[in-house]
Amino acid sequence: MGKLRIVPGIAALALLLLAPPALAQAQALPTLAPVIERVAPAVVNIAVLQRSPEEQNPLLRDPFFRRFFGLPDQPRQQISAGSGVIVDAKGGYVLTNHHVIREAREIAVILRDNRRFPAKLVGSDAGTDIALLKIEAQGLAEARFGDSDALRVGDFVVAIGNPFGIGQTVTSGIVSALGRSGISPEGYEDFIQTDAPINPGNSGGALVNLRGELVGINTAIIGPAGGNVGIGFAVPAHMVRAVMQQLVRYGEVRRGRLGISMQDLPGREGAEIVQVQPGSPAAAAGLRERDVVLAVNGRPIRGAAELRAQLGITPAGETIELRVQRGSETRTLRARIAEIEARHAAGGERIAQLPGAAFAHAERQGARGRERVVLVAAVEAGSPAFRSGLRAGDLIVAVNRRRVGTLAELAEALEGAERAALAVLRGDFLLTILIRG
Fold this sequence. Notes:
There is one protein chain. With 437 residues, this protein is an alpha+beta fold. The protein folds into 4 domains: 37-134, Thrombin, subunit H (Beta Barrel), CATH 2.40.10.10; 148-250, Trypsin-like serine proteases (Thrombin, subunit H); 256-339, Pdz3 Domain (Roll); 357-436, Pdz3 Domain, CATH 2.30.42.10. The chain is built from 10 helices and 27 strands. The protein is globular and about 65 Å long. The N and C termini lie far apart (76 Å).
Protein backbone atom coordinates (compact mmCIF):
# COMPACT_ATOMS: atom_id res chain seq x y z
CA MET A 1 0.00 0.00 0.00
CA GLY A 2 1.51 3.30 -1.07
CA LYS A 3 2.12 6.22 1.23
CA LEU A 4 -0.43 9.05 1.29
CA ARG A 5 1.10 12.06 -0.45
CA ILE A 6 -0.15 15.53 0.51
CA VAL A 7 0.29 18.30 -2.04
CA PRO A 8 1.79 21.32 -0.22
CA GLY A 9 -0.64 23.87 -1.73
CA ILE A 10 -3.69 21.80 -0.78
CA ALA A 11 -2.32 21.21 2.71
CA ALA A 12 -1.88 24.95 3.22
CA LEU A 13 -5.43 25.61 2.04
CA ALA A 14 -6.78 22.90 4.40
CA LEU A 15 -4.94 24.41 7.38
CA LEU A 16 -6.30 27.84 6.50
CA LEU A 17 -9.88 26.56 6.32
CA LEU A 18 -9.56 24.68 9.62
CA ALA A 19 -7.80 27.52 11.40
CA PRO A 20 -9.57 29.83 13.86
CA PRO A 21 -11.25 32.88 12.21
CA ALA A 22 -8.60 35.30 13.51
CA LEU A 23 -5.80 33.26 11.92
CA ALA A 24 -7.70 32.93 8.64
CA GLN A 25 -8.18 36.71 8.48
CA ALA A 26 -4.50 37.26 9.14
CA GLN A 27 -3.63 35.18 6.08
CA ALA A 28 -4.78 37.82 3.58
CA LEU A 29 -5.63 36.39 0.17
CA PRO A 30 -4.26 38.14 -2.93
CA THR A 31 -6.87 40.41 -4.49
CA LEU A 32 -7.27 43.12 -7.12
CA ALA A 33 -10.17 44.67 -5.25
CA PRO A 34 -8.28 47.81 -4.03
CA VAL A 35 -7.20 48.58 -7.60
CA ILE A 36 -10.72 48.09 -8.95
CA GLU A 37 -12.32 50.15 -6.18
CA ARG A 38 -10.00 53.04 -7.07
CA VAL A 39 -10.45 52.95 -10.85
CA ALA A 40 -13.91 51.53 -11.58
CA PRO A 41 -15.89 54.69 -10.65
CA ALA A 42 -14.07 56.51 -13.48
CA VAL A 43 -15.13 53.93 -16.10
CA VAL A 44 -18.48 54.77 -17.68
CA ASN A 45 -20.99 53.42 -20.14
CA ILE A 46 -21.43 55.32 -23.42
CA ALA A 47 -24.93 55.18 -24.90
CA VAL A 48 -25.16 56.37 -28.51
CA LEU A 49 -28.26 57.15 -30.55
CA GLN A 50 -27.12 56.57 -34.12
CA ARG A 51 -28.42 57.72 -37.45
CA SER A 52 -30.15 54.80 -39.13
CA PRO A 53 -29.56 54.06 -42.84
CA GLU A 54 -33.16 55.17 -43.41
CA GLU A 55 -32.44 58.66 -42.10
CA GLN A 56 -29.61 59.08 -44.61
CA ASN A 57 -31.80 58.18 -47.60
CA PRO A 58 -33.75 61.22 -48.92
CA LEU A 59 -36.63 59.04 -50.17
CA LEU A 60 -37.01 57.26 -46.84
CA ARG A 61 -37.15 60.61 -45.06
CA ASP A 62 -40.18 61.63 -47.16
CA PRO A 63 -43.42 61.05 -45.10
CA PHE A 64 -45.50 60.51 -48.28
CA PHE A 65 -43.07 57.85 -49.55
CA ARG A 66 -43.12 56.10 -46.15
CA ARG A 67 -46.93 56.03 -45.98
CA PHE A 68 -47.19 54.81 -49.59
CA PHE A 69 -45.00 51.80 -48.82
CA GLY A 70 -46.53 51.18 -45.38
CA LEU A 71 -43.44 52.20 -43.41
CA PRO A 72 -43.63 53.73 -39.90
CA ASP A 73 -43.99 57.50 -39.82
CA GLN A 74 -40.54 57.93 -38.30
CA PRO A 75 -37.27 56.14 -39.26
CA ARG A 76 -36.00 53.57 -36.77
CA GLN A 77 -33.48 54.77 -34.21
CA GLN A 78 -30.44 52.63 -33.52
CA ILE A 79 -28.87 52.52 -30.06
CA SER A 80 -25.38 51.22 -29.42
CA ALA A 81 -23.30 50.93 -26.29
CA GLY A 82 -19.64 51.21 -25.51
CA SER A 83 -17.37 52.24 -22.67
CA GLY A 84 -15.41 55.32 -21.69
CA VAL A 85 -12.99 56.63 -19.06
CA ILE A 86 -13.17 59.90 -17.14
CA VAL A 87 -9.66 61.35 -17.18
CA ASP A 88 -10.40 64.90 -15.96
CA ALA A 89 -13.06 65.16 -13.25
CA LYS A 90 -12.91 68.95 -13.04
CA GLY A 91 -13.22 69.46 -16.79
CA GLY A 92 -15.66 66.57 -17.29
CA TYR A 93 -13.51 65.00 -20.03
CA VAL A 94 -14.27 61.41 -21.01
CA LEU A 95 -12.18 59.32 -23.41
CA THR A 96 -13.67 56.63 -25.65
CA ASN A 97 -13.19 55.19 -29.14
CA HIS A 98 -13.96 57.02 -32.38
CA HIS A 99 -15.85 53.99 -33.67
CA VAL A 100 -18.13 54.05 -30.60
CA ILE A 101 -19.48 57.55 -31.31
CA ARG A 102 -19.15 57.63 -35.11
CA GLU A 103 -22.38 58.84 -36.77
CA ALA A 104 -23.96 59.59 -33.38
CA ARG A 105 -27.02 61.84 -33.15
CA GLU A 106 -26.94 61.91 -29.37
CA ILE A 107 -24.41 60.69 -26.83
CA ALA A 108 -25.03 60.00 -23.15
CA VAL A 109 -22.58 59.06 -20.42
CA ILE A 110 -23.88 56.77 -17.65
CA LEU A 111 -21.80 56.67 -14.48
CA ARG A 112 -21.28 53.65 -12.27
CA ASP A 113 -23.82 55.10 -9.79
CA ASN A 114 -26.38 55.21 -12.67
CA ARG A 115 -26.33 59.00 -13.06
CA ARG A 116 -26.84 59.88 -16.72
CA PHE A 117 -25.51 63.00 -18.49
CA PRO A 118 -25.75 64.26 -22.07
CA ALA A 119 -22.29 64.45 -23.63
CA LYS A 120 -20.78 66.92 -26.05
CA LEU A 121 -18.32 65.61 -28.62
CA VAL A 122 -15.15 67.67 -28.19
CA GLY A 123 -13.38 65.96 -31.06
CA SER A 124 -12.62 62.60 -32.61
CA ASP A 125 -9.72 61.04 -34.51
CA ALA A 126 -10.34 58.09 -36.82
CA GLY A 127 -6.60 57.49 -37.32
CA THR A 128 -6.01 56.48 -33.68
CA ASP A 129 -9.65 55.52 -32.94
CA ILE A 130 -9.80 57.98 -30.03
CA ALA A 131 -12.66 60.38 -29.24
CA LEU A 132 -13.07 62.91 -26.45
CA LEU A 133 -16.40 63.79 -24.80
CA LYS A 134 -17.30 66.42 -22.23
CA ILE A 135 -20.04 66.26 -19.59
CA GLU A 136 -21.22 68.80 -17.03
CA ALA A 137 -21.34 66.95 -13.72
CA GLN A 138 -20.19 67.18 -10.13
CA GLY A 139 -18.59 64.57 -7.91
CA LEU A 140 -16.81 62.70 -10.69
CA ALA A 141 -14.00 60.21 -10.23
CA GLU A 142 -11.06 60.21 -12.62
CA ALA A 143 -8.46 57.72 -13.79
CA ARG A 144 -4.83 58.75 -13.53
CA PHE A 145 -2.60 58.26 -16.59
CA GLY A 146 0.27 55.83 -16.23
CA ASP A 147 3.49 55.40 -18.20
CA SER A 148 2.69 53.04 -21.07
CA ASP A 149 6.35 53.20 -22.16
CA ALA A 150 7.28 51.42 -18.92
CA LEU A 151 5.11 48.38 -19.72
CA ARG A 152 6.85 45.04 -20.29
CA VAL A 153 5.56 41.84 -21.80
CA GLY A 154 4.30 39.78 -18.86
CA ASP A 155 3.08 42.72 -16.76
CA PHE A 156 -0.35 42.16 -15.21
CA VAL A 157 -3.14 44.41 -16.48
CA VAL A 158 -6.87 44.79 -15.83
CA ALA A 159 -9.55 45.68 -18.40
CA ILE A 160 -12.69 47.47 -17.22
CA GLY A 161 -15.67 48.13 -19.46
CA ASN A 162 -19.26 47.29 -20.29
CA PRO A 163 -19.18 44.17 -22.50
CA PHE A 164 -22.41 43.27 -24.30
CA GLY A 165 -24.15 46.09 -22.41
CA ILE A 166 -24.61 43.89 -19.31
CA GLY A 167 -23.00 46.34 -16.89
CA GLN A 168 -19.52 47.18 -15.67
CA THR A 169 -17.23 44.16 -15.83
CA VAL A 170 -13.62 43.59 -14.81
CA THR A 171 -11.23 41.10 -16.44
CA SER A 172 -7.53 40.53 -15.91
CA GLY A 173 -4.57 39.21 -17.85
CA ILE A 174 -1.07 40.13 -18.89
CA VAL A 175 0.59 42.24 -21.53
CA SER A 176 1.06 39.74 -24.37
CA ALA A 177 3.00 42.01 -26.75
CA LEU A 178 3.90 45.65 -27.36
CA GLY A 179 4.06 47.76 -30.51
CA ARG A 180 1.52 45.66 -32.39
CA SER A 181 0.43 46.88 -35.84
CA GLY A 182 -1.23 45.57 -38.98
CA ILE A 183 -4.72 45.42 -37.46
CA SER A 184 -5.79 48.35 -39.61
CA PRO A 185 -2.72 49.19 -41.69
CA GLU A 186 -4.01 52.62 -42.67
CA GLY A 187 -4.33 53.75 -39.05
CA TYR A 188 -1.65 54.96 -36.62
CA GLU A 189 -0.89 51.78 -34.70
CA ASP A 190 1.30 51.04 -31.71
CA PHE A 191 -1.05 48.72 -29.83
CA ILE A 192 -0.67 47.02 -26.49
CA GLN A 193 -1.78 43.40 -26.93
CA THR A 194 -3.35 41.69 -23.93
CA ASP A 195 -5.08 38.44 -23.09
CA ALA A 196 -7.35 40.19 -20.57
CA PRO A 197 -10.79 39.30 -22.03
CA ILE A 198 -12.13 42.19 -24.13
CA ASN A 199 -15.57 41.73 -25.67
CA PRO A 200 -18.01 43.89 -27.69
CA GLY A 201 -18.95 46.89 -25.55
CA ASN A 202 -15.51 47.05 -23.91
CA SER A 203 -14.44 49.47 -26.66
CA GLY A 204 -13.33 52.73 -25.08
CA GLY A 205 -12.84 51.15 -21.66
CA ALA A 206 -9.79 51.24 -19.43
CA LEU A 207 -6.69 49.09 -19.43
CA VAL A 208 -4.91 49.69 -16.11
CA ASN A 209 -1.80 48.41 -14.39
CA LEU A 210 -1.71 47.04 -10.84
CA ARG A 211 -1.17 50.55 -9.48
CA GLY A 212 -4.56 51.49 -10.89
CA GLU A 213 -3.02 53.76 -13.55
CA LEU A 214 -4.53 54.08 -17.02
CA VAL A 215 -2.04 52.59 -19.48
CA GLY A 216 -4.36 52.16 -22.48
CA ILE A 217 -7.80 52.58 -24.01
CA ASN A 218 -9.28 49.26 -25.16
CA THR A 219 -10.09 49.42 -28.84
CA ALA A 220 -10.20 46.10 -30.71
CA ILE A 221 -10.33 42.34 -30.49
CA ILE A 222 -9.54 39.48 -32.83
CA GLY A 223 -12.20 36.76 -32.66
CA PRO A 224 -14.00 34.50 -35.13
CA ALA A 225 -17.43 35.76 -34.06
CA GLY A 226 -16.57 39.11 -32.49
CA GLY A 227 -15.96 37.54 -29.07
CA ASN A 228 -12.87 37.20 -26.93
CA VAL A 229 -10.26 34.56 -27.78
CA GLY A 230 -7.46 36.07 -25.73
CA ILE A 231 -6.21 38.61 -28.27
CA GLY A 232 -7.22 42.18 -27.45
CA PHE A 233 -5.66 45.53 -28.23
CA ALA A 234 -5.45 48.91 -26.50
CA VAL A 235 -4.15 52.29 -27.65
CA PRO A 236 -1.20 53.10 -25.33
CA ALA A 237 -1.55 55.98 -22.90
CA HIS A 238 1.26 58.04 -24.46
CA MET A 239 -0.65 58.15 -27.77
CA VAL A 240 -3.98 58.78 -26.05
CA ARG A 241 -2.63 61.77 -24.13
CA ALA A 242 -1.09 63.32 -27.24
CA VAL A 243 -4.35 62.95 -29.18
CA MET A 244 -6.40 64.28 -26.27
CA GLN A 245 -4.26 67.41 -26.01
CA GLN A 246 -4.91 68.23 -29.66
CA LEU A 247 -8.63 67.45 -29.41
CA VAL A 248 -8.96 69.82 -26.45
CA ARG A 249 -7.03 72.54 -28.25
CA TYR A 250 -8.28 72.20 -31.82
CA GLY A 251 -11.23 69.77 -31.81
CA GLU A 252 -9.23 67.54 -34.17
CA VAL A 253 -5.73 66.16 -34.65
CA ARG A 254 -3.72 68.49 -36.86
CA ARG A 255 -1.14 66.21 -38.33
CA GLY A 256 1.89 67.57 -40.09
CA ARG A 257 4.36 66.41 -42.69
CA LEU A 258 7.94 65.20 -42.43
CA GLY A 259 8.28 64.14 -46.06
CA ILE A 260 9.55 60.57 -45.97
CA SER A 261 8.57 57.06 -47.01
CA MET A 262 9.74 54.22 -44.79
CA GLN A 263 9.90 50.45 -44.48
CA ASP A 264 10.77 47.75 -41.96
CA LEU A 265 14.19 46.17 -41.78
CA PRO A 266 14.16 42.36 -41.74
CA GLY A 267 15.61 40.93 -38.55
CA ARG A 268 16.31 44.20 -36.76
CA GLU A 269 14.63 47.15 -35.11
CA GLY A 270 14.26 50.59 -36.63
CA ALA A 271 12.61 52.07 -39.71
CA GLU A 272 14.57 52.52 -42.92
CA ILE A 273 13.94 55.66 -44.98
CA VAL A 274 13.38 54.72 -48.61
CA GLN A 275 12.50 58.18 -49.96
CA VAL A 276 13.05 61.78 -48.89
CA GLN A 277 10.86 64.33 -50.64
CA PRO A 278 12.82 67.31 -52.03
CA GLY A 279 12.21 70.53 -50.11
CA SER A 280 10.58 68.67 -47.21
CA PRO A 281 11.37 69.07 -43.48
CA ALA A 282 13.17 65.72 -43.68
CA ALA A 283 15.46 67.03 -46.42
CA ALA A 284 16.10 70.24 -44.48
CA ALA A 285 17.04 68.20 -41.40
CA GLY A 286 19.61 66.23 -43.39
CA LEU A 287 17.83 62.88 -43.55
CA ARG A 288 18.87 60.64 -46.43
CA GLU A 289 17.65 57.51 -48.11
CA ARG A 290 18.79 54.31 -46.33
CA ASP A 291 19.07 56.13 -42.99
CA VAL A 292 17.59 54.00 -40.21
CA VAL A 293 15.51 55.84 -37.61
CA LEU A 294 16.16 54.27 -34.19
CA ALA A 295 14.31 56.70 -31.90
CA VAL A 296 12.05 59.76 -31.91
CA ASN A 297 12.34 62.16 -28.96
CA GLY A 298 14.15 59.43 -27.04
CA ARG A 299 11.41 56.81 -27.62
CA PRO A 300 12.80 53.69 -29.36
CA ILE A 301 11.36 52.85 -32.78
CA ARG A 302 10.87 49.13 -33.45
CA GLY A 303 9.59 49.43 -37.02
CA ALA A 304 7.97 51.54 -39.71
CA ALA A 305 4.48 51.31 -38.19
CA GLU A 306 5.76 52.65 -34.88
CA LEU A 307 7.57 55.55 -36.57
CA ARG A 308 4.43 56.30 -38.55
CA ALA A 309 2.33 56.25 -35.36
CA GLN A 310 4.75 58.55 -33.54
CA LEU A 311 4.79 61.05 -36.41
CA GLY A 312 1.01 60.76 -36.65
CA ILE A 313 0.49 62.18 -33.15
CA THR A 314 3.05 64.97 -33.56
CA PRO A 315 1.36 68.31 -34.33
CA ALA A 316 2.51 70.55 -37.14
CA GLY A 317 5.04 73.13 -35.98
CA GLU A 318 6.67 70.89 -33.39
CA THR A 319 10.37 70.05 -33.59
CA ILE A 320 11.33 66.42 -33.10
CA GLU A 321 14.67 64.80 -32.37
CA LEU A 322 15.57 61.76 -34.47
CA ARG A 323 18.30 59.28 -33.58
CA VAL A 324 19.50 57.90 -36.90
CA GLN A 325 21.98 55.26 -37.94
CA ARG A 326 23.83 55.98 -41.17
CA GLY A 327 26.19 53.18 -42.08
CA SER A 328 28.28 52.51 -38.98
CA GLU A 329 27.60 55.95 -37.45
CA THR A 330 24.76 57.05 -35.19
CA ARG A 331 23.78 60.69 -35.23
CA THR A 332 21.03 62.93 -33.87
CA LEU A 333 19.04 65.17 -36.23
CA ARG A 334 16.28 67.67 -35.53
CA ALA A 335 13.33 68.27 -37.86
CA ARG A 336 10.42 70.66 -37.65
CA ILE A 337 7.10 69.06 -38.66
CA ALA A 338 5.53 71.17 -41.39
CA GLU A 339 1.92 71.97 -42.14
CA ILE A 340 0.33 69.70 -44.71
CA GLU A 341 0.56 71.50 -48.01
CA ALA A 342 -2.60 73.42 -48.78
CA ARG A 343 -4.20 72.41 -52.04
CA HIS A 344 -6.41 75.17 -53.34
CA ALA A 345 -9.42 74.54 -55.52
CA ALA A 346 -11.89 76.99 -56.99
CA GLY A 347 -15.30 76.42 -55.42
CA GLY A 348 -16.01 72.75 -55.02
CA GLU A 349 -18.79 70.36 -55.93
CA ARG A 350 -21.00 68.30 -53.63
CA ILE A 351 -22.34 64.78 -53.85
CA ALA A 352 -25.33 63.32 -51.98
CA GLN A 353 -23.37 60.35 -50.63
CA LEU A 354 -21.00 62.53 -48.55
CA PRO A 355 -23.10 65.37 -47.15
CA GLY A 356 -21.22 68.28 -45.65
CA ALA A 357 -18.17 68.12 -47.92
CA ALA A 358 -17.17 69.84 -51.16
CA PHE A 359 -14.85 68.18 -53.68
CA ALA A 360 -12.63 69.18 -56.58
CA HIS A 361 -10.33 67.52 -59.07
CA ALA A 362 -6.61 67.42 -58.32
CA GLU A 363 -3.38 65.67 -59.26
CA ARG A 364 -0.54 64.19 -57.22
CA GLN A 365 2.86 62.75 -57.96
CA GLY A 366 2.54 58.98 -57.64
CA ALA A 367 5.04 56.16 -58.05
CA ARG A 368 4.18 55.99 -61.76
CA GLY A 369 4.00 59.70 -62.44
CA ARG A 370 1.18 62.20 -62.14
CA GLU A 371 -2.19 60.71 -61.23
CA ARG A 372 -5.68 62.13 -60.83
CA VAL A 373 -7.32 62.16 -57.39
CA VAL A 374 -10.34 63.78 -55.73
CA LEU A 375 -9.54 66.66 -53.38
CA VAL A 376 -11.68 67.33 -50.32
CA ALA A 377 -11.94 71.10 -50.80
CA ALA A 378 -13.99 71.84 -47.67
CA VAL A 379 -15.76 70.04 -44.83
CA GLU A 380 -18.45 71.52 -42.59
CA ALA A 381 -17.74 70.93 -38.89
CA GLY A 382 -20.22 68.48 -37.38
CA SER A 383 -21.48 67.24 -40.76
CA PRO A 384 -21.72 63.50 -41.61
CA ALA A 385 -18.56 63.80 -43.72
CA PHE A 386 -16.74 65.49 -40.83
CA ARG A 387 -17.88 62.89 -38.28
CA SER A 388 -16.69 60.13 -40.59
CA GLY A 389 -13.19 61.63 -40.44
CA LEU A 390 -12.82 63.55 -43.72
CA ARG A 391 -10.89 66.82 -43.51
CA ALA A 392 -10.16 69.64 -45.94
CA GLY A 393 -7.02 68.89 -47.94
CA ASP A 394 -7.52 65.12 -47.94
CA LEU A 395 -6.98 63.34 -51.25
CA ILE A 396 -9.35 60.45 -52.01
CA VAL A 397 -7.55 57.91 -54.19
CA ALA A 398 -9.80 54.83 -54.00
CA VAL A 399 -13.17 53.49 -52.81
CA ASN A 400 -13.32 49.86 -51.70
CA ARG A 401 -9.89 49.38 -53.35
CA ARG A 402 -11.19 50.73 -56.66
CA ARG A 403 -9.22 53.68 -58.01
CA VAL A 404 -11.10 56.96 -58.37
CA GLY A 405 -9.68 60.01 -60.13
CA THR A 406 -12.74 62.15 -60.78
CA LEU A 407 -15.78 63.30 -58.85
CA ALA A 408 -18.03 61.27 -61.18
CA GLU A 409 -16.02 58.12 -60.40
CA LEU A 410 -16.27 58.84 -56.68
CA ALA A 411 -20.05 59.30 -56.83
CA GLU A 412 -20.45 56.15 -58.93
CA ALA A 413 -18.34 54.07 -56.53
CA LEU A 414 -20.43 55.24 -53.56
CA GLU A 415 -23.82 54.88 -55.28
CA GLY A 416 -25.94 52.29 -53.49
CA ALA A 417 -23.13 51.11 -51.23
CA GLU A 418 -24.22 50.46 -47.63
CA ARG A 419 -20.63 50.78 -46.48
CA ALA A 420 -17.56 52.11 -48.23
CA ALA A 421 -13.87 52.27 -47.35
CA LEU A 422 -12.21 55.43 -48.69
CA ALA A 423 -8.44 55.32 -49.20
CA VAL A 424 -7.37 58.84 -48.24
CA LEU A 425 -3.97 60.50 -48.44
CA ARG A 426 -3.31 62.98 -45.65
CA GLY A 427 0.17 64.41 -45.68
CA ASP A 428 2.67 61.54 -45.69
CA PHE A 429 0.18 58.84 -44.81
CA LEU A 430 -2.58 56.71 -46.30
CA LEU A 431 -5.71 56.31 -44.17
CA THR A 432 -8.89 54.27 -44.51
CA ILE A 433 -12.09 56.15 -43.68
CA LEU A 434 -15.28 54.12 -43.37
CA ILE A 435 -18.48 55.62 -44.73
CA ARG A 436 -22.02 54.34 -44.27
CA GLY A 437 -24.42 54.74 -47.19
